[in-house]
Amino acid sequence: MTKSANPFLERLGIRLPLIQAPMAGVSSPAMAAAVSGAGGLGSIGVGAVHAAQARAMIDGIRARTGAPFNVNVFCHKPASGQEAVERDWIGRFAPLFAAHRAVPPDALTEIYRSFVEDDAMLAMLIETRPAVVSFHFGLPRATAIAALRDAGIVLLATATNLAEARLIEMAGIDAIVAQGWEAGGHRGVFDPDGDDDRLGTIALTRLLVRETALPVIAAGGIMDGAGIAAALKLGAAGAQLGTAFVGTDESLADDGYRAALFGAAAHHTNMTRVISGRPARCLANRFAALGETIAAAEIPAYPIAYDLGKALHAAAKADGESGYGAQWAGQGAPLARRMPAAELVRTLTAELEAAG
Description:
By secondary structure, the protein is an alpha/beta fold. It has 14 helices and eleven strands. It has helices at 7-12, 29-37, 51-62, 83-99, 119-128, 142-150, 162-170, 201-211, 225-233, 243-246, 255-261, 286-290, 304-318, 341-355, and strands at residues 18-20, 42-45, 69-74, 132-136, 154-159, 175-179, 185-186, 216-219, 238-241, 270-272, 280-282. The strands form two sheets. An eight-stranded parallel beta sheet has the order 1-9-8-6-5-4-3-2. Strands 7-11-10 form a three-stranded antiparallel beta sheet, with no helix packed on it. Strand 2 (42-45), helix 3 and strand 3 form a beta-alpha-beta unit. It starts with 6 loop residues before the first helix and ends with a helix.
């Protein structure tokens, strides 16, 4: 299993059917380089930074390895501000800020741009030419896809159902990341306000393998080599693991996040949109618990809501409270392990081989 068993892995230039998920704010150039150097596909998420910062991250990987890696961008619909909703949102959380001797923002802003309108990010990717670029929350415009393909970049995109997979296939993307309901972090749904069938990784992977012609990468709840082996038996070309890498040495997760991951909270993850404005699976913490009683219509759009979420986390953290962080994790969180990223890849490889 450690050798390339399909043309897709050969096209990526990797020998292991393993992709480290591009967790924005958690995955680091050091993590991506370690995973790629060990034979998998390391990834960074640049959806929350501008083009110059993303270029620096790419340079950071290339300073550590010559192996292929993936750069992930967010393709959400640009936010439309709702002044009344945002004002009420600030007021709702003002007492929490006060409890931590802080004041909330006077107003909320769209804290980062979607790739669908970020020409500087597109130009930077075409110039730097990472081996792989992946899309989350949807797809960019057709001209951007064509430009990236013309630059020789392999393209991946997340789907949570068959309809999204069909759009990915029609757009000329090279492979589909099948994100099951179990997955940690932001749900990759194209329309966060639409119906969500909440398909699990097993059902979604089999459905997309059967109904599309593209390679499928299973994602969600996979934490060890046995899980990777199961994904391959479902017909997937590979598996994407995110939560498994949150506890590694190279992760940017802070001490509070790590403590929650390796504590009781790992057994009780919640899908919530209260932190950022889009559905995302989080470790059970104070912020996620608040979301259980708040209607979606009361929450500002993504990523405007995230402006307050980040401010609240910073205020509480400065006061010794880590329970308002974006502690993203999937349902497999209790299986997380502490070790360097390259060692985790070697461990996963051994487990995969043992699983046959």
